[in-house]
Amino acid sequence: MTTAPTPVPSSAAADRDSTRVGGGAGGSRTAPKNPLADRTAPRRRLRPAGGPWLATLPLLVFFAIAFGLPAIAIAIGAFTLSPDAPSGAGSFTTSNMTASVQGAYSTALLGSIKLSALTALIGVLVGLPLAQAVVTSRFRMMREAVLSASGVLANFGGVPLAFAFVATLGNAGELTKQFKLTSHGWSLYTFNGLTIVYLYFLIPLMILTITPALEGLRVQWREAASNNGATNWQYWRHVALPILLPSLLGGYVMLFGSAFAAYATAAAMVGASIPLIPLHIADALSGNVLVGQGNVALALSLDMIVVAAIVMAVYLPLQRRSARWLS
Amino acid sequence: MAQLMSKIRWGRGAVLLIAGAYFLVPMVCSIIFSVDDNTGFSLKAYTGLLGAPGFLDSLTFTLELAAVTVVVMLLLLVPALIAVRLGSQRLRTVIEIVCSLPLVVPVVALTAGIIGVLRWGPDYLHDTPFFQTIVAIQNPSFPVVLVLAYVLMSLPLAYRALDAGLRGVDVRTLVEAARNCGASWPRAVVTVVLPNLRGALLNATFITLALVLGEFTTSSILGYQPFSVWIYEAGKNDGQMSVAVSVLSLVIAWVLLLALSAVGRERRGRKPARP
Asked: B109 and A302: CB-CB below 8 Å?
């Protein structure tokens, strides 16, 4: 969005653009001749006819099937009575939605939001200097080892991660036994414990997300800044961070989404002792609800989607604003 | 200046050291935990592994899913992203929205939706060919429905990785140059654009691979048994073995990804450094 030198507003303009390029391309051969010859001569077009649509169509079709259908199922299901309801299955109702924002469900929703917002913030703040240290490292081997390890850990965030932390900081974990942490009031199966575990996959995710942007920072910018007498701090404050801001915001949103949606870690580690919304949905999907409330799972899913959508809605204008500074 | 540089180097060293400790401690503790019998050192959590029922099956199942997912993801995303870099602004916005939307739908919610769709099969579509399709994509030996879900989940991550790479490369100029030199279309993309995107392509592959290898939510709720679900099930009976497998799965995944990055490095070595 930011690097394109001349945004092309319409396909007609794009065509003109490509013709211009094509003319320049074959310039030495075709241009001096009759302009009409241009039509018959093999033109070097910037892109093949219909190329953009042809290249993007598979993605759009896939998206319509894999994303559209489940989305429709959620939208319909959240507002209709469950198939297992005693009467009136399939008819319109808002009872699923009201049930999904009351009592235990509302506690779980707030718990999930709080956990995600906090862990994503810490993840961004810690991940940025770490990624910078890795990117500028002289040792390529270490760089690649860290990046691939990040790739693993960012999604190691699942069952294996939960077991690793139970073995480390759980009630019978090695560190817990070694330092008698339980007597100091430590427990892994709390909000704080879960925060530590979540950071274990969120920080690597941040490193993976921000590394390409950090690699895009040109050495010349730093040199120019220091030639003008800027300190390291001034370089970061006035040059690097403003450039990185869209990527950082994008990273925060991605981390929030990842933490908000994380299910496996919590499921394998704490069971239901911490109220989190994904656990409730999985519970409802496997039938652990009152008869006739099967569609509450879909209503809860809609709640999650709404929260995630609000976050995106906050993020997009911010990102557009910072993108303006870049161009 | 030299003083400043050395200060930066020290700062970097400290950052890496602290981070290294944070990330290594749980791994080391897990290894100790898995070999620490009450009586002393014992490797039985590891030696019993290969004989454990379902271990190899779930592992190959997961690797197959991962390979197919990565290929499908790249085939869908790479042409689309290169095309919109060259093409219209409007189409680029569409693709950006399409690739960001899965972020709005958490995996658990997506799974709930998938279950809803699959339920349409027996409920409404019994006499139509769609019913056969719905049955076919749930084939237990290779559930296409999981691949669909995995590719969708990987879209935002892979898109960001690829887009960040494309942002640093002036695709338009590269393609113009290649075309002006007489390269055909496929050649311009494959030999000029893609090599410049190698880092981004590897990144996208990394993320997708790791995502599939660790995926638990969808597969467990839909009732399939890839590696992560198997670990969870095994953990119910034998805590030590599940920790052992967790460590092993980390190592397996890491080695796999390191090998992938080694492939990338080899390619890089064959060509002269780009300016």
From this structure: yes
Domain contains A184: yes
What is the number of residues in chain B? 275
Residue A63: its pLDDT value, please? 94
Specify if A146 maps to a domain: yes
Domain coverage including residue A167: 104-275+301-326
Nearest Cα neighbor of B85 from B186, B166, B203 is: B166
Q: Are A117 and A256 in contact (CB under 8 A)?
A: yes
By the CB < 8 Å criterion, does B257 face chain A? yes
Mutate to test the interface with A, among B74, B105, B205 (most CBs of A within 10 A): B105
CATH of the domain at A244: 1.10.3720.10
- Asked, for residue A26, whether it belongs to a domain, the answer is no
**Among A151, A17, A15, which Cα is nearest to B258's?**
A151
* A244 vs B145, residue with greater confidence: B145
Q: What is the pLDDT of residues A103-158, one digit of tens each?
A: 888 888 899 999 999 999 999 999 998 998 888 877 777 788 888 888 778 766 57
pTM: 0.76
Q: Which of A45, A56, A264 sits opposite B228 (nearest CB)?
A: A264
**Domain count within chain A:** 1
Helix (H/G/I), strand (E/B), else coil: A138? coil
pLDDT at B12 over 90: no
